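subagent[fold] <- orchestrator: predict structure for attached chain, return tokens only, no commentary.
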Amino acid sequence: MGFKTAAGLAPQSRVDSTPTYSCQLIRLLNGELIMPREAYKHAMYFFVDTVNKIKPDQWDMPALGEWSVRDLVGHTVRAMLTLPQFAKRKAGERAPVADIPTPAAYYQQAFVGDGTNERIAERGRQTAETLGPDLPAAVAQVSMEVASLLDTLPDDFVFKTLAGNIMLVDYLPTRTLELVVHTLDLLAPTEIAGSPPHDAMLSALRLLADLAADTPYAGHLALLATGRDTWNGPFSVLN
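subagent[fold] -> orchestrator:
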């Protein structure tokens, strides 16, 4: 699919020496590699394929919390739309300096403040309305535009997001996580069969582990994952 890996570029350095997701890839403990651009694109195409399978009578079904299937698709497509939105620069504007050092730090910053979840929910509904009645076609078109944009941006390109400034290689894993988790959210109410691409799932789980390590749930999550504990009720490492 013409993914660019920018092979040969040196890893980006940071003033504070905070470890970062490397420019081209993340090496997991088992030696497997995750290439952020490929993982993101694979997650995006998994979402596009799932949306294309939603039946006409399913769009208004309950999906997640207060969201219908349509609302959830509207929220999830923002993991694509925000790339061109936050990449925009005014003529003569200096490139911003990244002040969010890691993907996990992005989430920790994004949920600061009262009413954040309510604003996120409303933006999802508004996006679904803006995209029009043919959501599958609109989502497919957005995916093509975003894939083309990614092929033009360097790894150290800095996005000006609502949470702060973050490099492309650190922002993409957060968008991959959104695409993976919310596409899984769509599978249950629509009864669509599917599973995330391997590299996209690895990327999402890696970031979730990073987030969990800084929460009170870290120990319980380790025990849950190894069959040593159970947990009463849902919990989230995102906020």
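orchestrator: received. Logging for downstream: The chain has one domain: 27-212. The mean pLDDT is 84.
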